[in-house]
Amino acid sequence: MTRILSLLLLIALLCACAPTPFPDVPVASVAPGERIWPTLGWPTSTPEEQGLDSARLDRAAQRAEKMGIASLLVFRHGYLVHENYFAKTKANTRFAMYSVTKSFTSTLAGIAVDQGFISSIDTPVSEALPNLDLKTTSPEKNQMTLRHLLTMTSGLDWKEGDPVYRAMYASQNWVNYVMEIPMSEKPGSKFLYCSGCSHILSAAVHQAVQNDLPSFAELNLFGPLGITGYYWEEDAQSIPIGGWGLNLTSRDMAKLGYLYLNKGQWNGMQILSEAWIDAATQTQVETGDDVGYGYQWWVDSEYEAYYASGRYGQFIYVVPRLDMIVVTTTLPPKDTWAIPLFHDEIIPAIID
Predict the structure, then answer these.
(1) What is the rounded average pLDDT for all residues in the chain?
(2) Exposed/middle/buried for 350, CB within 10 Å: 0-12, 13-18, 19+?
(3) Cα 306 vs. chain centroid, distance in angstroms?
(4) What percentage of the chain exceeds 90 in pLDDT?
(5) Closest CA to 236 of 146, 176, 160
(6) In this structure, are residues 49 and 347 in contact, taking their beta carbons and an 8 Å threshold?
(7) Does an H or E element contain 146, and which?
(8) What residues contact residue 240 under an 8 Å CB cut-off, 6+ apart?
(9) Is the pLDDT of residue 3 over 90?
(10) Helix, strand, or coil here: 230?
(11) What is the per-residue pLDDT for 33?
């Protein structure tokens, strides 16, 4: 009896001392054959168990570190199969999302449409924001709709970059600042990337949900997905910034991709309609480059994928045909374009 107790004590001590790779997030319990819902944490698996070559993923991680990437995570069939952090970051590090925020903003716009807070994305901006107090307007500006904001075809003569960002921060009314910009095109006629337009979209959703987008987001998106401890910067009117400002962990970034991968379903709830998912992740407008643009999502048609992309190298890359999500983050001032890593190393790691 004494020998048995000693053996049990030894086993307990060994288990207590054994390293656990994911100690800070609880692992979900998954029954065989069930779809995984990582609300409380991502369950883990080996790459080979999910049809991936671990050696190839290790090489991808080595390449990612050389590129200056701070985190690289690979998910397949709902499992976290490969996770690497560099530059002293960890699983609980919250990264600035920069323009990945736009994909969250458009998701909340879709939820507001699904729930009837917004009647249509063809609603004119002037109708969605009736309290606009503009010094100048035009017939073309009055034709601008929420659809044009979603697809970056507003027609505004927007100059993307730090000078205009600084001017927005100095403004006491960000919405008016953006809407006062002169028109250069008729709405809907040309793609022009516009972070200010994403903020106008955020303001329109904020207005539609009784001027409380933070609570709406927590109740209808972040809460159900189990995204916690996030931070979302607001403008001078307490409107969450639509084009940037959200801070998340890499694992929580992947949850948005998983929501889209599952056509808007999450653990028995239809968070976002399948119709919105399909429209948001299809090319709505040509960009003049080798990728299309949906509703604040980029479309990689060659690989049948779509992705959220943020400054410096923040990515949520979703490949539905492979049931795969890849997440990367990078810390400024390093500016990294991770798409070749996905094409050259991650996708070719599929072996099933």
Answers:
(1) 92
(2) middle
(3) 11
(4) 88
(5) 176
(6) no
(7) helix 146-150
(8) 105, 202, 206, 213, 214, 217, 232, 233, 234, 246
(9) no
(10) coil
(11) 66
